[in-house]
Write a structure and sequence with these properties.
341 residues; mainly beta; 5-stranded antiparallel sheet; 0% helix; disordered N terminus
Length: 341
Amino acid sequence: MKTYFNGAQRQRQTLFVCAVIATAGMSWSAKATPQFIIFDPPGSVATTSRVISNGSVAGYYQDSQGLYHGFVRTSDAVITSFDVAGATNTYAGGIDEVGRVTGFYSLNGIEHGFLRAKDGTIETFDPPGSVGTIGLSINRGAVTGFYYDTNAAPHGYVRLRGGEIDVFDPAGSVYTTPTSINSTGAIAGLYTDNGDFVHGFLRYPDGSITAFDPPGSTYTAAVSINKETAIAGFWYDSRSDIHGFVRALDGTITTFDVAGADSTQAASIDNKGRSAGFYLDRNLTSHGFIRLPDGPVMTLDPPQSAYTTVESIDAAANEGAITGEYADPQNFFFHGFILTR
């Protein structure tokens, strides 16, 4: 979870500016000039733009009172803020190709999952026995995330489009965190074993689970899966250095680093195999990147960004738009951005 900085209320803005992309002579797109769109929901002092699908963005923001609200920004630039009825805080974490949103909300100190339809109606849910439910990803109406049992042990779940909830854990898991679901119902995530090692996993639509790790990994985080069941994420080596990886459908794992980076974390992968994420430079300043399927890496920052976090690349659209947030250099307030092309 990021640390956010409070500040004066900022009015919503939608500014088009030229993209700052270091490409080592390569072009991300020959069809159009990439552009940044900068935005904030009204009343936001810290915007987190979590995910983009089919041009629409979902996320959450902090107001001047320190409370969190969900939002959706549609492809035509309309921003709608929302809260689950009675909630203290509402966090949107996933959006699917038709605009359904999942996430979680807090009520009396307990988290519960929610599903928001495109028309704004909200259903809440909890797996049986849950004392805290987190919704993280949605695809074609199916939701995945994790929940805590009465012993504070977290388990994975998938909530099917009809509302049925299946719970699961990889063999040997003491802490299960699903992170992403694709259009076929395959799920990627990570789990901790009883030796305190963290592994990636792939759960197939039939419920079978495969665990995996890049060679030499002591901590593997699988964070995004595309329709071809390719997975992107990051891993720690024995020196606690962080590297990105992409795992292909056949299980082949390719690891990578942004040149000169202190750490590299892939956060998302689209249906063309392009992965996006962020890296820390030697001054521990964060920048965004996009990695093409054949390996070239391009770096990116919104103009005047003091700290950039790329959260998601659009898997439901061919253009590969990217979203995330960045800190301005004046106040270190976080603002949402979309990089289009």
